[in-house]
Specification:
The complex is a heterodimer of chains A (about 850) and B (about 180). Chain A is of the alpha/beta class and about 850 residues long. Helices cover about 30% and strands about 20% of the residues of chain A. Chain A contains 28 helices and 36 strands. In chain A, a hairpin with a 2-residue loop joins strand 33 and strand 34 (about 795-805). Chain B has a domain at about 65-160: Alpha-Beta Plaits, CATH 3.30.70.3270. Chain B has helices at about 20-40, 85, 130, 160, and strands at about 65, 95-100, 110-120, 140, 155. The termini of chain B are far apart.
Chain lengths: ~850, ~180
């Protein structure tokens, strides 16, 4: 199944000849001829039209009754009339009917001024209403969730929100309750509608029935401006539009880009803007004197930072996280060109080496995001998109629901996509390599069952894989097996098949490509090999590295091995920290520079599929914040290396010069929708220079054949497919009598600083929970909600038990990045083996409880 | 090139300067004007001694704005809908709305104006705000004496607009 180019047909609407795609709905075809047919319930993003509101009635020659234009596909030679007396009467009637119960409280309604019902009543309605009876009344407004207020009086029953909930994130929480004229939108037993994508229904609502608590009454459409940008809170990089009033972001709306986000936005992207105005935001440069932060002027701060870095010279390392391509490029230039060090990394844990990164970025085996839509098979590997990149979750669901794509999920932790999957495989944390080696072997040997069978039988297949499978000791093997899989499936020869990597941080791909890797310079070029993130930590601790530049990273919260990082930061002689907010990490800094948010930044970012997108400044920078590229350029100059960058476009120019395959991309070409560099003029350059220098065979020599042979030998006695049934997944083998479990950690969508700092999202911040399988819970005598302590050696974390049926026996999971009991304390490269115990209860509580019981007895 | 006699037009002129004609030109016209002056010399003066005296304004005169409360509940009529700001051609109105606390209501509706400012230095007194208001919360009053020493003092806040205006301007009665 591949993307088809539809036939063009001709029809006449109101006497105008219009050319349209065959199978398009009449409403869409009319738009191409500049004829507007009013609609309420029609929304192509929600899937098949339902024709619920009847607003789009039109007359079609040859059909005696009026037809709904939203659900009538066009035919060749069709003659349609949208302005006849009969149609007008119907339109007037529908508007009058919709207004029977609509309260007309437009002056207090949030939607007033941007309300389709207002517009359509003015354009197609009558100005008189013959109904004199009392309108129906509901309590208003009531909270539908802590983020959304519902005013049921205003609802016109278009079903958009209900369809969204059922068709898009498939949570099916919203329902129509009651029947006939008493029907209303609600949830089962008035549970709050809490879902990662709930905010989209506010944007979908064609009236003011669903309003956002964060935007209620904040502004009117004539008070505001819209600023288009890109959300950089996760790798999905959804296109957004900021609503600006008084130079501040008041609301975030989706900016439809079907090739990136399909027009949806997760609640983190929608409500996370509040973090920009949090009290923890760093508003001016700070110097730490005697352990206390002192506000500094910009020249002072830059001089202090530069002096420290100059002194450390090549004993400096840099870590880049939340940064645009421009910022990442200048940071690596400071480290490499100004200080003569090679220690720069943009990852949280060591992963693929340069050769593998290059091989995986080969345009021939890369898929586009939209390839997921039409693929026959999608394999989601080692990532749960709902947590790592929510927009991909919706896209995979759409493919499965609407296009009949077969989904295979292979993860360590049960994923949100399991429900719609044809094949589900579980492997133990850190064991992705075993699974992949077996899978690659099975595909090679021609298996026709399981995941291998699915992939082999597909005309077009897309593998969505998480950066984390490349971590740890077996990481290189896993990636080699992935490359082998891509090779044996012939992705290079299939136009709509390929790999898409979901990285850990939002702009990971861009940062790698501009040179924020220890072994690759700008454009993934060969360079002196420096230390990776783990070696930088060790180097700081041992004193080999003296000075550290942190750009938009918070190692103490986000990086594995929290204690190790604390020791490293304590040992560091000079720490320069660029941070948007005050964190635990900034307390170890000598100089803190404030960072811009994604509503203030001017720069580019690179989507996981290779699409360069522009982050545009929409809101005013609060306080005394300077643009990131400018501060870095000044810092570089103060160290003694002139970058020659004096503006944001010049920074982009510097990148396109340094990264050959970004060549020719300018702000104008990237524009509002972005452009994949693979589609740019310099893409051949990538294949010609980078791939030929690494190896003729994209699989790094030495690793893959050995791994493949090993796996083949291991499976020789098994079924020809070589795929084990899920029950005896590798996780099962690791069980031993001591009762220790293999601990995996995962990044929860909500476990990050954006959630903490946005008052609206605060309630979503997860408390630490331990996910265990049913069998382990039974064996260890755990039940849901029990408070336990998870111990590994000296390290211990308290958590509440959650039992998950789909979890493999012998494994358990904790959340990374929580405020308290952060699971990152355990991760030191390899998955930890943990014992589950009872937490230490405070003494006085025990005493009080014991006394009471004794007394009663 | 010569000019033919028929092309020459003769322009009639007044008396030659000097002599009787000159005297008339000097005094005649002046005296004619002075006759009007002398004639009005003993009439009542028409000057109004502003600011001690004031011209009464017509009932529909558009002066300084007023915000109103309901007479019974004393809640503000304004719900902060911003329609006045949208209608204002001079863009001198700024409204920031907020949600009412049901325990401690400010206005009758769901929302109220937390900030309501009119920059009277910029207002052109067109009255569109009054016309746009769906709740008759803002009306144009009769006061026109708003001169001040400082531009920023001409930004009237909600409290100033809600306060009972000092009645400084006489209203013209029926038939006046």
């Amino acid at each position: 199944m591949s993307r088809k180019v539809p036939n063009r047909i001709t029809l006449t609407i109101d006497g105008r000849e219009i050319e349209a795609d065959e199978g398009a709905m009449l409403v869409d075809a009319a738009k191409q001829g500049d004829i507007e047919i009013p609609v309420f319930c029609y929304e192509p993003k929600l899937g098949q039209p339902v024709g619920a509101c009847r607003m789009c009635l039109v007359e079609i020659e040859g059909i005696p009754k009026l037809q709904t234009a939203c659900s009538t596909p066009v035919r060749d030679g069709m003659a349609v009339h949208t302005r006849t007396e009969q149609v007008k009467e119907a339109q007037n009637g529908i508007v009058e009917f919709l207004l029977v119960n609509h309260p007309l409280d437009c002056p207090v309604c949030d939607k007033g001024g941007e309300c389709p019902l207002q517009d359509i009543s003015m354009g197609w309605g009558n100005d008189r209403n013959r109904v004199i009876d009392e309108k129906r009344h509901f309590e208003k407004p009531v909270p539908l969730s802590p983020l959304i207020a519902i005013d049921r009086e205003r609802c016109i029953m278009c079903y958009r929100c209900v369809r969204f909930s059922q068709e898009v994130p498939e949570d099916a929480q919203l329902q129509i309750l009651e029947r006939g004229d008493r029907s209303y939108i609600g949830t089962f037993s008035e549970q709050p509608y809490i879902a990662p994508f709930s905010g989209n229904i506010i944007e979908l609502c064609p009236v003011g029935a669903l309003t956002s608590y964060t935007y209620r009454f904040r502004a009117r459409p004539w008070d505001i401006e819209q600023g288009g940008s890109v959300c950089t809170l996760c790798p999905s990089q959804c296109n957004v539009s900021f609503t600006i009033r008084d130079e501040q972001v008041k609301r975030v709306l989706a900016r439809d880009n079907p090739e990136v986000d399909d027009g949806w936005l997760c609640d983190k992207g929608r409500y996370g803007f509040q973090a920009m105005y949090s009290l923890d935001r760093v508003l001016n440069p700070l110097r730490y004197e005697g352990g206390y932060p002192v506000p500094a002027t910009w020249p002072e701060a830059i001089e202090t930072a530069a002096a420290g870095l100059r002194e450390a010279g090549s004993r400096t390392a840099a870590l880049v996280g939340d940064a645009s391509n421009e910022e990442g490029f200048i940071v690596q230039s400071i480290v490499r060109d100004a200080l003569g060090s090679a220690d720069v990394d943009s990852r949280r844990a060591p992963a693929a080496d340069r050769e593998t990164v290059v091989a995986l970025a080969d345009p021939a085996i890369s898929a586009r995001t939209i390839d997921i839509d039409t693929a026959d098979v999608v394999l989601v590997l080692g990532t749960d998109p709902i947590h790592s990149s929510p927009a991909f979750d919706l896209r995979v669901r759409k493919a499965v629901r609407r296009n009949g794509t077969a989904l295979a999920v292979a993860t360590d932790r049960p994923s949100a996509l399991d429900g719609g999957a044809t094949e589900v495989e579980r492997y133990a944390p850190g064991e992705a390599a075993n699974f992949l080696i077996e899978l690659a072997a099975a595909v090679r040997s021609g298996a026709d069952t399981g995941v291998a069978g699915l992939l082999r039988g597909a005309e077009e297949a897309v593998v969505v894989w998480g950066e984390r499978i490349g971590r740890g000791q077996k990481g290189p093997e896993a990636l080699a097996a992935l490359l082998e899989l891509a090779g044996s499936l012939g992705f290079a020869d299939r136009p709509e098949s390929g790999l898409i990597e979901i990285p850990d941080v939002a702009n990971a791909r861009g940062l790698r490509e501009v040179g924020c890797l220890p072994d690759a310079g700008p454009g993934l070029s060969e360079t002196a090999k420096g230390r990776d993130v783990e070696a930088i930590r060790a180097g700081l601790e041992s004193g080999e590295i003296d000075s550290l530049l942190l750009f938009g990273v918070d190692p103490l919260r986000d990086f594995p091995d929290t204690e190790g990082w604390r020791r490293a930061l304590e040992a560091a002689g000079h720490v320069v920290c660029f941070s948007m907010t005050a964190t635990e990490t900034t307390e170890y800094a000598d100089v803190v520079f404030p960072l811009e948010s994604h509503a203030e930044k001017d720069g580019t970012v690179t989507h996981p599929e290779g699409r360069l997108q522009r982050v545009r400044p929409s809101a005013k920078r609060p306080g005394d914040i300077h643009p990131g590229w400018m501060v870095l350029a000044e810092l570089s100059a103060a160290i003694g290396h002139e970058t020659g960058i004096n503006s944001a476009p010049e920074a982009l120019e510097a990148i396109t010069e340094a990264v050959p395959f970004y060549g020719g991309l300018t702000g104008e070409r990237i524009a509002g929708r972005g452009i994949r560099w693979q589609d740019g003029q310099a893409a051949e350059d990538f294949t010609a220079t980078l791939l030929s220098t690494t190896a003729a065979d994209p699989v790094p020599a030495g690793v893959a054949p050995a791994a493949a042979e090993g796996s083949a030998g291991e499976d020789s006695g098994g079924a020809p497919g070589g795929i084990r049934p899920t029950e005896s997944s590798p996780a099962g083998r690791e069980l031993n009598d001591s009762g220790a479990l293999t601990l995996g950690t995962y990044r929860d969508l909500w476990a990050d600083s954006t959630t903490d700092l946005s008052p609206a999202l605060n309630y979503l911040m997860p408390a630490q929970r331990l996910e265990v399988s049913i069998a382990d819970a039974r064996r260890l005598g755990l039940s849901r909600g029990d408070e336990v302590s998870v111990n590994s050696g000296e390290t211990s974390v308290n958590a509440r038990v959650a039992i998950r049926g789909a979890l493999a026996e012998g494994t358990c999971f904790l959340i990374e990045g929580t405020i308290e009991d952060n699971a990152n304390v355990f991760s030191r490269g390899e998955p930890a083996r943990v014992e589950i115990g009872r937490p230490e209860v405070k003494l006085d509580l025990v005493a009080a409880g014991g006394d009471g019981e004794a007394g009663e007895q | 090139m010569s000019i033919s006699p028929e092309e020459i037009k003769v322009v009639p002129r007044g008396p030659e300067p000097g002599g009787a004609g000159g005297a008339y030109r000097a005094f005649g016209e002046t005296l004619r004007g002075l006759r009007t002056t002398m004639g009005r010399l003993f009439d009542e003066p028409v000057t109004i001694q502003y600011p001690e005296e004031k011209t009464p304004v017509y009932p529909r005169f558009r002066g300084r704005h007023k915000l109103h409360r309901f007479e019974d509940s004393h809640l503000e009529k304004c719900v902060g809908c911003s329609l006045c700001a949208a209608a204002c051609p001079a863009e001198c109105i700024r409204v920031v709305a907020a949600e009412n606390d049901p325990e401690n209501r400010v206005s009758a509706g769901e929302r109220f104006a937390a900030v309501y400012e009119i920059n009277l230095a910029r207002c052109i007194f067109c009255g569109y705000c009054e016309m746009a208001c769906p709740f008759d919360a803002i009306t144009m009053g009769h006061d026109f004496e708003m001169a001040d020493y400082n531009r920023s003092d001409l930004i009237f806040t909600k409290e100033m607009l809600l306060a009972e205006a000092i009645d400084r301007t006489p209203l013209r009665g029926e038939g006046e």
